[in-house]
Every structure is written in structure tokens, then in C-alpha cells.
Amino acid sequence: MSAEGTPAGTAPVMTETPQQAERAVTIFEKSVPGRRAAQLPDAGVEATPIEELIPSHLLREAPAELPEVSEPEIVRHYNRLSRRNFDLDTGFYPLGSCTMKYNPRLNERVAALPGNAALHPATDPREAQGALRLMFMLQSSLAEICGLDHVSLQPSAGSQGELAGLLLTRAYHADQGRNPTKVLTPDTAHGTNPASVTMAGYEVVKVATDEDGGVDVEDLKSKIDDDVACLMLTNPNTLGVFDRNIVEIASLVHDSGALLYYDGANLNAIMGQARPGDMGFDIVHVNLHKSFSQPHGGGGPGAGPIAVSDRVEPFLPKPQVVIELTDDGFPVFDLDFDRPRSIGRMRGFQGNFGVFVRSYAYILSLGGDGLAEASRLAVLNANYLKRRLAEGRAGKYLPVAYDRHCMHEFVLSGAPMKRDLGIKTLDLAKRLLDFGFHPPTVYFPLLVDEALMIEPVETEAREELDRFADAIDRILEEAEADPEIARNAPYTTPVRRLDEVGATRRPVIRQR
Amino acid sequence: MSAEGTPAGTAPVMTETPQQAERAVTIFEKSVPGRRAAQLPDAGVEATPIEELIPSHLLREAPAELPEVSEPEIVRHYNRLSRRNFDLDTGFYPLGSCTMKYNPRLNERVAALPGNAALHPATDPREAQGALRLMFMLQSSLAEICGLDHVSLQPSAGSQGELAGLLLTRAYHADQGRNPTKVLTPDTAHGTNPASVTMAGYEVVKVATDEDGGVDVEDLKSKIDDDVACLMLTNPNTLGVFDRNIVEIASLVHDSGALLYYDGANLNAIMGQARPGDMGFDIVHVNLHKSFSQPHGGGGPGAGPIAVSDRVEPFLPKPQVVIELTDDGFPVFDLDFDRPRSIGRMRGFQGNFGVFVRSYAYILSLGGDGLAEASRLAVLNANYLKRRLAEGRAGKYLPVAYDRHCMHEFVLSGAPMKRDLGIKTLDLAKRLLDFGFHPPTVYFPLLVDEALMIEPVETEAREELDRFADAIDRILEEAEADPEIARNAPYTTPVRRLDEVGATRRPVIRQR
Amino acid sequence: MAGYAPITPADQAEMLGAIGVDSIDELFEQIPPEVRLGRPLDLDDGLSETEVFDQLDWLARQNVSTAEVSSFLGAGMYDHYVPAIVDAITSRSEFLTPYTPYQPEVSQGGLQVMFEFQTAMSELTGLPVSNAGLYEGPSAAASAAYLAMGATGRTGLVASRGLHPHSRETLATHAVGFGATLTEVGLEGGLTDGTELEAAITDDTAAVFLQNPNFLGSVEDVAALGEAAKAKGALLIVAVDPMTLGILRPPGECGADIAFGEGQPLGNRLDFGGPSFGFFCADEKYIRKMPGRIAGETTDADGRRGFVLTLQTREQHIRREKATSNICTAQALNALAAMVHLSWLGKRGFVELGELLARRTAFARDRIGGLDGFELLHEAPVVREFAVRSTRVPVDRLLARTNEPVDAGTHAHEAGIQVYPLGRDYPEYEDSFLVAITEKRDPVEIEGLAEDLESTLAELEATAVEGAR
Amino acid sequence: MAGYAPITPADQAEMLGAIGVDSIDELFEQIPPEVRLGRPLDLDDGLSETEVFDQLDWLARQNVSTAEVSSFLGAGMYDHYVPAIVDAITSRSEFLTPYTPYQPEVSQGGLQVMFEFQTAMSELTGLPVSNAGLYEGPSAAASAAYLAMGATGRTGLVASRGLHPHSRETLATHAVGFGATLTEVGLEGGLTDGTELEAAITDDTAAVFLQNPNFLGSVEDVAALGEAAKAKGALLIVAVDPMTLGILRPPGECGADIAFGEGQPLGNRLDFGGPSFGFFCADEKYIRKMPGRIAGETTDADGRRGFVLTLQTREQHIRREKATSNICTAQALNALAAMVHLSWLGKRGFVELGELLARRTAFARDRIGGLDGFELLHEAPVVREFAVRSTRVPVDRLLARTNEPVDAGTHAHEAGIQVYPLGRDYPEYEDSFLVAITEKRDPVEIEGLAEDLESTLAELEATAVEGAR
Ligand SMILES: Cc1ncc(COP(=O)(O)O)c(C=O)c1O
Ligand SMILES: Cc1ncc(COP(=O)(O)O)c(C=O)c1O
């Protein structure tokens, strides 16, 4: 412990926080030969030597070097590790484009009911009616929210939804005897969009952004032709603004014979206000771990259901959840595998059901009005914080990238701060950690220099937004006096700034 | 944030840890008019004005000033608060006489099963067979462990078990037409013993401790007479040593017509090794939150079942769980209220059933051999740590109070440390906090000057004991150089040393 | 290696070596051989986690819980919905696994929770002083009696029969130790008989116990009844159901010196009766006579706000035989659950819930009181529970159960009507039962109860006629 | 105020004032009126927590889960016992609620878990490089194909029919986008047909996919089969069931270039098929071609050990259209569950569990293969799952269910036999089904399955005779 004694009443001088003093030790390093946690039931059958059951050349010689630790040690290890994470239940987490909204504990409770958690995916549908009904009702709810009638819950996350959507696009065109080769994406698109395009065998063509933050319609016109399979849009886009020309864009795209794809990561801005289907989109993916409150889990699990228009429906992945009515009008749910034009499976079994339970519970809790209100408040919070950051130092050093009312998020540029104060967006982000805030998304979208992408979400209190704005101001004030403070931040986190370059140069990615 | 910038690579200078910088704010102070978390179902019946249902002079005028906060704010508030606690899953917690053993999470899982957690206490016994059977089996297990055939699970904790035991003693004597007025307790007894004696209407008479750490038999002889209702013993006692004269003591007590009461707080030392019943005890209380792994919950809940001999059985509290066999030999369990000589109820309903479930799960997990082994390892750990602390500085400044093999815990005296280094046991305890350890029990038992009572329990690893011994040595080494360090400790805890005297002088015990 | 212990045989050998003994047995030699248990305990061997789970799961399925059937059981513990955040917070190891906050510097979480809890209970009861919680309701009655006797130097205890039978029985048990005499006062029309009460109070009466709502569900006029106690210098002690305090006048405004109660309805699951907690609030002048833990606000060496256990000179570990109570380990985690639930309900939700209970109860009381074969036991105003008399068949037949043990899965069908028969506690009301309402019992379920009562009565009368033939 | 939002009407008014607009609607004016939804969403209104719980509890009770019946379903996901500490740890908000560790200084918990997980999977598979997890097993197959095509510049994919049907279907779906051609190789005696395999591999074969144990439960001789792939310079990609790796030779020692699999058996509940996770391990030379997140060790500014997301130049947020994969949000929490479960099993427990599975499976296979009316589909060695042929009645009749919806409480009785019919995936094995074993299925339950099969067969044949009369 690096504390020097001092007379009571005066604070001690410390060079490390208690957490910093506690060095990282892995569970493997805590292993002691002979220790164990698990006691297994005995087999209750003859203890035949394994070699008599399986030829020895197919057997393992040396056991895997898993840790040897007792249960109390495991619990302490992971409890202590957990405290080295910043989480949503600790403080403000305005990570742009990620919709870090509160994760209701009710959803965890219902997902854990044995009828859900212990349900085998291969259970006969007649014995999984509750699960299939829930999936069917979630599909219907998402269809209503997206304004597109047909939903597949299968994709495991947004990026898999994108890939599914692009494979649907391919199947749709092929069905028409066409084989376009290009997919248009705005330069503001999230990285998963172009990556998915390539994996779907298409060529990415970038479309420029106009001064209003929307798609540059002229550029679009110049690039759209019958070799274009689809245009992928996020609307509101990653600049947090709604594309005012969406109607014109949709008709341009449709006239060319292409489909319009909606990246639903930003759906939290418009629930109950406007629907992608009504804007002319043919395919939408929804991130249940964003707008629909599935916890982010430190990087998943999530789910990326897709909603599509009639003309795309025949190609949806299989199996699909379907409803039939018995003669006495009683609904029975089933899995339909008999879909000849389907693109097939994107993954195993029926998708991330546990996520469906949570999101359906969320939809039931809020209801239609509640979802609409959530979007309204998300937009209110974003515009309020944007306003607060337009004042004083923030206004001077961190101008908003496209100055108009934003939707649920907005993007600032740290360029003037870098120029005038000599601290980068990264430095600001790291210094925010010392103030107990998770930084916004940084350096994205790419077309904004030194970008800071801020999404406050509806579940944050106004005081929290004010505290965040004040912290930004304090940091800029500090930087005016001494930029080194931010450049060397953070100071109080479990570890300080980490050497990422070194990590990549000599990768150490497992315990040796 | 009180960190000064410094060139990267060199540590910053901090005057406060991040947690210290975060000042205490209550949930009431976070209240904002109009905020809320709960949405209630609507009544679904006529909204009659309450005054029409209940006369208005019986109604409340102003609502209670409960906080107005949203659910995300509540979760953050209590999550952040929780991190201001040191807990057993964070580190070593050798609190003497409290048996801070690992709390298996399996036990929490089974206690939470709806059949247990949602079972109403007034459920017809024929519809609570599982619960009654569990209680019956726990009773039988405790009877076997204590060596006394009859068990009541009713008492809510050890101290209520003591009071129940003393009321049983009274009933027993009254039944014999006797009315003794005194209860003997050794000067090493825990505070609850004398307190319970008074509440049972008896007068406390102290018995001295001999140089071996046991009851001073001569002093006992001089005090025991037919006005003594019982002798309360803890064995091993709070010095951690087993009373070698237990057999003689028991006969002295019984010959005088008194009963022998066993304070089971230290049962973790002798499970499967020796049984209070076999030592001649008539009444035993067991702390399920100590030897039987019920989590301590920051100060409860616990349970203090009592086991008694045949002659005391008729007076046990009611109701009692009983078994009957149906004609076809099928066991049926019931609650027996028809116990004319019973002392009656100690509390509401059937006791802390949720605690019974956890402790029964623990007993099933370990089994008879496992319980015996747990005690053996608890004694091994205690003697090992005692040995480590007999070396070097600790040996010099913190001599063991009674130097013989200990059982599951041992007591050191900080008197030489205070004399030679000028730091008190309290200072040592506070400095241990900076090293990430919970201190032992301090200043108890009372007859040891500057006492430190150390109980390492069987679920701690040897390395942990070594780290603790090393920390003690480091602290003494520091103190040799500069006693101020310990005197002003702790430095790194969420708050530093607190003014307890001021708190008592002007008590502020609620939000104003 | 067993019992979650990390000590390997190799560890053991080295540790024994360090200690300087050859075996662990050697350490046990201090126990005289004649009292050593020379055999293994007669208990089954230890089981794997999955086997233990299965056994306890099987047992749990033998119970008919409120998760399986629509239950109108109350009598002091109520089937309220416990919000999910309560489990999420109380299951955090930082709250679950530490012990009493003897070291305040590393226990600020638990101590601040106590301080917040004390504030909330003080707000609910309208009394300035609250402790951090006791075991449960009935034993809190005994603690109150002990305080009153100490404060008045008197030995008489007078209790209304409206006080929970478990509280009265617990008082009686403790009275033997306290050297107190307990007198009961009867009920009239569902309410404490004022004249009988006045007559029962003497110059040696230390305390008068009332309950509001009383055990029959009736709202008592505590202020009026309390005057008799005041007149004779006895303490007025009132047991309250916390969930009714959103709408009922708090005891502190009715002249109560002490208010206590069963805390279960606040964020605690039923757990077949425990663990829950008891709350205990009193007038300022009793602050140094309170039982149990109390957290107080203070500052640290650097002037930071902090919390500590305070007024500890009341307690057993300091005062020993002179302590105001023998309580040590209490129910801290249960009090936390209550605090989270109360924060979740909040200032408005807490009142709304009280109103919801009163309105649904009025509906249920009309519906069930109106069935033929049934009538109300009394007409006194109620909040969340009421008493019904069965006029044509004995209650035990109405609530008869098969003696078959409950079978997992199917018990829903075998389960009887879930109401509380009054006979055991009140022979005088042998023909009556209590019906309790919570926000989980909606009008449809209430209708279901009415129909179950009707149909069961019909069946019984049918078979009776059969029998007569 | 709705949706857990803390914003009061008063807050709104002030915030709108600050923004300088009169209403929230004004902020939405940027959405062209013609695409505004001029009506409320056609969804029910929001419900209270207790009502939502009741609805979902009711739905959950319509399912026949492994908590209700003894299930021998497997086919890639298995009913293992998940120790309680897994839930205790994964439910901690510090693990549950953050996102991908973009800010390593405040994400050391999650990053170190990834590093530990990578180590564990590398140990299990015997391959040096592991990522931090993918979505689930089958889509990991697609990721492997994508890597192989990039690494070899070839377009052919060859897969044994022993590979999980979902993996083959997922490969086929993705192949369209990848521009790959997929060839299947049949099984012979429960094992991949070596000659057919060799014939199927060409100079354009990018990868050969095997599964071990294969979908029929058979242990393949991966090393032997793999040689054909090596010979033609194709990558050998092996799908494995992690729970068998305690006893089976790891793919890394059988010449596999890539090993992947479904992670559910490790600490993840069944959840009707997800969320779980996929694991993905490879040879050193593919480290910069891996899909998904990878955590690496490094040091901080003061020299402290720390962990970061590394080799990010592979990923979509940097490389965009040139990324090695499009994956972003993955299954971090599920990988944590696996790591906790593996730590709990430990070095020895993990082997013991593999042995337990092999022995109980041998017992079950003898017992059920020996019933008349049933025979083993193949004699190949197995670990934890085996295939049985029904020789006298069609499998669909054997497993027939009533079409009645499941009724809460009573479904235990209606439930059919819980084994996996092979017909849909393997028309050639239409007469067969799979039986899977875990440590939760003890010999008594296995005996129960044997009896159910016998009695059901008997009933069917009896009714058949009836029908014939
Ligand atoms: C705009 C946008 N599109 C797509 C994605 C990808 O979604 P996922 O991470 O669920 O694959 C994200 C989120 O990371 C996103 O912000
Ligand atoms: C020796 C001893 N006796 C009695 C008690 C009282 O037990 P409880 O706290 O359960 O009332 C304790 C524990 O605090 C103790 O250590």
C-alpha cells in the first residue's frame, strides 16, 4: 500500500489507487495443483477404462491445462475482476450509436424462468408453444414498429442482419434474373455495412454526404444504375440527423430497380414517430440490444432481427415461426422449414431466444405509447445536451459537426480543440474517465475530424447530462492551463493509458 | 478529480482515491419531485374516494416523504453504495467468533425456488409437505451433529436461541417446583449471554478463567449452588480453546441440579469430532449463519435453532414440526401446536425458513464426512496462522493469549505492541484495511488486553493466510519506524477514520 | 478436500510441518477422549451440486406456493410483487456476504442503507427515531414491552385481541422472563372494546398494545383508544402493517410512543415465514433505550460525511447484562430489500398502492360478503384484509384438503381455497376466515375466489343431502 | 413519463426552454410529414411489472423444459448442469451492462476474461490462437470458410455429412455470398467415408470440414481423414463439442488448421437455442486473418500489466470492406459463463466429466440398443450421444404428441419422449433418432427412457393389431 502516514485530518499522499496497486493476475496464475471446485456425481455405472470404449489413438494424452482452483477462489477472482469494469449501472455511458439505455432487471427475471432458460432448442414445437408464441408476438410487434409485415428473428446481431439482408437482396434480384454487382453505402456508414457488403459478394460504392448531413442526392444520382443491388442507409444516420430527402432517395433507388436497406441501429430515435417501411425501405435490421434494452454484456449477446416487404418475404431465412388455427379456432404455433425460395439458415436453431424474451418484456412494459415516448425523450435529451455543449468552452473547441436539431445523438468535432489546445479527442475521452464518465464514441463517423459521437438516451436524468457538460468544460479549462493533464490521462482508472501499439506488434493473446 | 497531470509513465500525485472523492449522498437527497420508478396495475374496480371507504380522521394527511427517483437511478445508487462495502467475496475476513466461511451460491439458488420463496407461512401443512419435510430433515441433521435428540428451528439468531434456552431452563425448573435465580457465565462469554440472562429474569454470576483458558473449576465450585439455574458455556470458548475439564464441569453443574447451556457459535471447530450432548450439555443453540454457511447479509438474517435433551423437550417452543406415518407407511409432516408445557412462541410463524433451506443444502453438499473435514481444516488453518504469527515481529508484539494448540480460532494480545510501539490494536486493525484485509474481531474477549480474535475458517487458502501474516509484519515494521502511519490509518478506504464519539454525542440518525 | 475448502493434501502436509505436529488429530487431542465422537456422523455422504439441486427442487415442488395458486392468505404476511431490482441489489455479494459493520470505513454501503432505512421507517410511522431493524414483527412486540417496562418501572402489559396472535403469544412467552403480566382486551364489532380496555389499564400498566389495522383487518381509532393509556401514564405501543401507511394516519400522529411491525410486505418474499424483518420506531425520548442497531451520521478524519453504528452503549457487546436488548445478528439484508422496494414505490407509488389495496378490498368484501352462505364478520372499515363468516358449513370442511401429499406438477388441481381460518387463534370466530388482497390479486382472481367458495359450498351441501338419504 | 425515463414534465419544460423550442414535436419536424406516422403504434399500452411478469410466466409454462421432463435431446446443445456461481458472476452488472471494451482503462475486467477465455479454448483445442468468441457454432463454420478462402484463394468447400446439418445449411447460405461451392461427403457406418472424401477434394478446395464427434455421435479419426486435405493444400477445419475434449484428442494434435464449435455446453443454459457462443481457434499463421475480437496483453503508462483489444486492423470498424469478418457485437457474456464453468470444472473435473459421459453413454447405448424393436444405427465409438434405429415402427409415431397445447402444471404427463429424430436432416436415417447424455441424466433416468421406448412401442403395436381386427 503506497500511502504515507500523515497527521489525522490531513489527507495522505498516494501514488496509486488501491485498484492500481492490485496488479492483474489471471485465474491460471492462481492455479494450485490438486485444488478443485466441482464435485461431480458418480457415473453410477461400471467404470470401464476409456480405452476400452474409444480407441486410444483417438484419445487425449495430456489433459488441457485448465486452472485448479477452489470455488471461493473463483468467486473472488471474478468479483474483483468485475470491479475493474465501468458499467452502465455505475454511471453515464453516452456511447454514440450504441444506445446504452437502462437494462430492466425484470427482463433478466423472466428470461431466467425455467420454461425459457431450460427449454431445449430441438423441443417438439407442440411442447414449445409458449416460446413460439412469444417469438410470433415479438415478430408482430417489430413488424408494426418497422412498418414492414414480415420478420425473421434469426440473425444474431446487427451485422448478421445486414449480411442476411444482402443475401436476401441477392436472392431477390436473382429471382428476377438480374445480377447487379454493386451496393451503395454513404461515407457515414458503420463499418459493419461495407464489411457485410463484401461478404455478400458485392462491391462497395461510397456515396457522399451533403452539407446538411444527409445523402448527397446529386452524387447518388451519378452513381445509381441498374448494376446497383441496393442502397444501405442509417436514418437518422450516424451524424444523428434525419435525411430530409428520404422520399426522393427512395424513389431514385426503386426506379433503378435496387432495394433500399435500413440499418436499424438508430431506431431508438423514431419508434412510433416514423417507420422505415413507410419511408420506402425494403429490408430493416433491428438491434434488440440497442433500442429494445437487451444488456450489452461487455460485447454481446444481442440479436438483429430483420423486417422485410412482401416482395422480399419469400426469401427469408428458415425456419420461420408460423401460426395455424385449429378447427375450434385455437392458435397453434409451428416452425416452418418448407420454404423453397428461402436463402436458408444464417445460424443454428431459432436465434437468440433469451434476447427475444427480454426485448418482448421490454415492449410489453412500455407499450406502444411508451416506445413512442422513449424516442421523444431520447431526442429531447440529445438536443438538450447538444445545447449545453454549444455554450462556453465546449462551443468554442468542440463545434457540432452539422448544426441543426439532432435526433437521438449528435457529433462534435474536436479539431479546434486539437488545433488550439493541443489535445486530441482521445485525450479528452481518457480524461473523462477520471471524472467518472464513459466517453462517447470517438473517431467515428470517419468524415468528421476528431469526431465525438454522443448519445445520451432517454433513461438518463437531466442532472446527469448537466454534470457531463460541466466535466467537459472543466477538462477544457484544465487544458487551457496545462494540456499535459489530458494528454497523460487517465490517472485514477484501474490501469492507466495502455500500449496498444506494442500489443499489436508482439501479440500475447494467451497465457503462457 | 484531484489528480495533477504528470508526464506519462510517472504516476500522478493524488490526495484522494476516486471513491473518497465521491461524497456520500442519500437516495432522499437524489429525490426530484415527479420522478418515479413503479408503475402499478390499475385496480380494475371502481375508483371510490378513499374517504368513502375509511373515515377521514383515520386517514393520513401528508404523504410520507419517500424518495422520488426513477428505476435506473435506484439501481445506480445501490450499486455504487455496494462498492463502499468490504465483503467476503472480496477478501480475507478473519472476524473471530463469526465464522466467515464462503457462502455457496447453490444455496441462494435453491432458496429462491418459487416453491420455497413464494410459499405463504400460513399454507395448509398438507400443501407445504416439502417445506415441513425439509425442516424435519434439518432438525434431524442438527440433532445428530449436536448429540441431542430434540430440535426447535424457531429462534431467529443465536441471541434468541439463548433467550429461548434460558426460558426453557426456567420452565424446566418450575416444572420441578424449583425457582433458582442465578445463571453462571464465564468472563469470556459473548455479550449476548449476559444480556439474554437478564431478559430471562436471571441474575448473572461471572465465573473466572484459569491459566489454561478454561473455566476456573475452583471458582466454579465456590459459586455453584442450588440457586443456580444453569451454566452457559461456549466450548471451544471465545479464546479458541477447548475446555479440558468439561466432563468435571458438567457433573458439578448437574449435581447442583442446574442445567448446562452450550453457546454453539463456535460449533465450526468440532463438527463430527465431538458433540455437546455427549459432553453433558442439555441445551445448545446453533448459528446457521456461522457453521452452516448462511450469508451474513451485512448483519443478518441468520437463524439460531436449539437442540435439547429429553428432559427439556416438553418445554420446546411451538409449533413443532412432527412426522406421522399414513396407514400405508407414507410419511406426512405437520405442525404440532398442541404442546401444553411449551414455553410458547419466540417469534412469528415457523422461523427463518429461507435460512433453513440454505443450511440444509450446505449439509447435503458436504455430508457427514464433509462437515467433519470442514472442522478439521478450520482447526488446521487456525493453528497454521497462529504459528505464522508466533514468528518475528508478530510473535514479539502480539503474543498469543493462551499458548496451546487452538481450535478454529485464537486470540492475540496487542498489549506489548501498544507498550513498545505506541500503536493500539485499533490502529493495527485500521491499517489492515489499507492492505485489503478485514481486521479480526478486536477488544473481545474482554479479559485479554488489546485483544485480537482471529478465525481464518476452512474456506481460505494457505496463501491467503500467509499474505495476512506478512501484512501484519509489514504494519509492525512500519510502526517501528513511524507509529503515526498506523495511528492515522486507514488512508485508502472510501472514508477515513470516523468520529464515533461525535456521532453519539449529537445523534443524527435520520435524514432531515 | 471437502466443504469448498482450498486446502490440498500437499498444503496440509506443509502446514502440519510448520505447526510441528504429525496430524490434524493431534490438534484435537485437547478434547478429552471420553467426549470425542469415535465414529462418523450418521449423515449421508456429500453430494454433487446437481444432485443437491435436484433433491431440493423435488422438495420445493411438494409445496403449493403463491406462484402456483391464487392465494388470499395474509394474517401478517402478504403476497406482494417484489420488483426484480430488489433481488438484483440484495444478491450483490457486497451486500450479501459481509457481517455487521464493525469497521465503518469499509462498511459505508451497509451503514448508509441503514441510515436511509431509518429515515424511511420514521417517515412511514411518523415517529422521529427508528432502529435498523429487528428479527420480525412479533418478537419486536417483546422488545417494545422490555423498553416500556424499563422506561416506566411497571410490570403490567395490556394487549388488544386485535394484536396479531403470534405477537400476543410471543409477548406471553417473554413476559415470563421479563416478570410481566399480560392482560388481553376483547374485540367488539371487529374493533378493540374501548371500555374494556380502559378498565384493564392500571397504575402498574407499563404499556398498551394495539394493532392497526387489527388482525381482523379493521382500522382502529388509535388516537381515541390511546387516551386511556396516556391517562394512566402507560406507553401506547402500536403494531402497524407498513403497506397501509400510505393512506392510514401514522401511529406517530395518533399519540403512539412506539410503533413496530412485521416488515415482510416491504420487498421481502414470503419464504414460508422468514427471514423478513421487524421495524421499531419510537419517540425521541426513548432514543437511548432502543433495541437493535442504529446508524448515525458523522464525519471522517478529512471531514468527509460518513456513517457509523451509534449509541452502541445500549448494546449487549458493550453493556452486557445491562443492555437494552440481547439482539446481535439481526436482518440487515431484509431491511435493504425494504429500502429498495420503498424507493421503487416512491412517494406517490406508495400512496397509490395503499389506495389500490383499499379499493380492491372493498370490491372483494362486497362480492364475498354478498354470497349466500357467507356474511361479513364485522362492518368496520378495512384496508387490505377482511373477515368472513361461513353461515352454513364449518370452515374446516370448506377448506378441507385431501391428505394426499402434493405431487409436483399437478398440485394446482388439488390445492384447496387459500384463505386464513380464524378458529385456532380465535375460538370465538371458529366459523370465520380472513381474506387478504394485494396488487397481485386482480378482480378476475377475486371473482375466482367467490366462485370457488360458492361451488365448494354447493358440493358440500349436495353430498350432505346425499348422506341424509 | 415512461420507459424507465427519469424526465419529469418540469424537466421537459426547462429543457425545451434551453433548447429554444416549444415542443418535442418541433424537434421531429426534420422528418418529412409524408413519412411521419400520424397515429399511435398499434401495440397494447404499457403494463406494470407484475402484469408483465404474469404474462411471461404464463407463456413460459406452456413450454416443456428440461426442468420438467428428463430430456435426452442433444444435437449440438446439451442439458448440462450450470453451476450457481455462473449466474452469480454473469449477473453482476459490471459484466452484464457495459459494451465492447473500447476504453480498455475501464474495461480490464472484461478484457482479462477474454484473455483467460482465449487461453482456455486454446488449451481445449490444442491450437495456439483463439479469438474471444463468435455468435454460435454454425455461423462460426461460415467464418472459417471465409478465412480459408482468403488464405488459399480457392473457392471449393468440402464438408462431411457428419458436420452438423445447421452448419452445413449455414455454410450453403453464406457460400452464395462468398462465391463458394459446397460439396458434401457421405457417411459409412456412422463415419465419414474416407474414399469419397479424398475424391471430393480438388486443387480448388479451400477447406475440408469435419466434425468430431460427428452429428451421429461417432468419434472420427480426424488425423487420418485430414491427410487427404493436407495433400491437396486445403485447410482442415474441425468442428468439436468442447465437452468431449477432456478425453478426445484435440484437433490441434490431429492436424487441424482451424477448430470451431458451439460453446453452449460450457456454462450456457439452453435458452431454446441462444444466446450461446461460438469458439474459433486456429494455427499461429492465421492470427492476422482471424474473425472477431481478440484480447492481448500489454502494459500501461506506469508499466502495469493490462489487456486491450488487439489486432484490430482485421476488424470492420477499421478495415471496413476489407475486414476479415463483419462481426461487431458478439457474445462476450456467454464466453464469460464458459470461462467460469471451465474454472469450476478445473483441470481434473473436466477430464472426469468426459469420462462420466463416455461411461454413462456406453451404458445407455447397450441398454437401448438391446431393446427389441430397436438397434444401433452404427457401431462406431461414441462419447456422449448415439443413434438408434427403430425397426418396427416409424420414428414419428414413436415420438407422436397430442396436438393439445401444453397446460401449465400438467404438461409433465403429456410430454412425449425427448430424443432427436434424424428424419428431417437425414432422409436416409428417417428411421433413427439420437440419444444424448449429460451428467444430469443418471442411470435411473436412462432406465426410464428405455422403459418409455418399450412401452410406447408395445402400445403402438397393440393398437395396430386392434386396427387390423
Ligand atoms: C450504425 C450501426 N450499424 C450496425 C451496427 C452493428 O450492429 P451489431 O454490433 O449488433 O452487429 C452498429 C453497432 O455496433 C451500429 O452502430
Ligand atoms: C460466542 C457468540 N455467542 C453468541 C453470539 C450471538 O449470535 P447471534 O449474533 O446470531 O445472535 C455470537 C455471534 O455474534 C457469538 O460469537
Textual characterization of the structure:
The complex is a heterotetramer, with two copies of chain A (512 residues) and two copies of chain C (469 residues). The radius of gyration of chain A is 26 Å and the shape is globular. By secondary structure, chain A is of the alpha/beta class. Chain A contains 18 helices and twelve strands. Chain C is α/β, with parallel strands linked by helices and 469 residues long. Chain C is built from 15 helices and 15 strands. In chain C, α6 (108-125) runs parallel beside α12. The longest helix of chain C is centred in the last third of the chain and has 38 residues, at 332-369. Chains in contact: A-B, A-C, A-D, B-C, B-D, C-D. Chains A and B meet through α3 and α17 of A and α3 and α17 of B. The structure holds pyridoxal-5'-phosphate (PLP) (2 copies). Residues 97, 157-159, 190, 192, 234, 238, 263, 265, 287, 302, 304 of chain B line the site of one pyridoxal-5'-phosphate.
Bound chemical compounds: pyridoxal-5'-phosphate
Biggest interface, chains and residue tallies: A-D, 212 and 216 residues
Strand order of the largest sheet of chain A: 1-7-6-5-4-2-3
User: Main β-sheet of chain C, in a few words?
Assistant: 7 strands, mixed
Question: How much beta of chain A, percentage-wise?
Answer: 5-15%
Uncertain stretches of 5 or more adjacent residues of chain C: 408-413
Distance between the termini of chain C: 71 Å
Task: Give the end-to-end Cα distance of chain A, rounded to a whole number of Å.
Answer: 29 Å
Give a count of the beta strands of chain C, DSSP E runs of length 2 or more.
15
Give the oligomer, counting copies of the same chain as homo and different chains as hetero: heterotetramer
Counting helices, strands and paired strands, the structural category of chain C is alpha/beta
How would you sum up the global shape of chain C? globular
The number of helical segments of chain C is 15
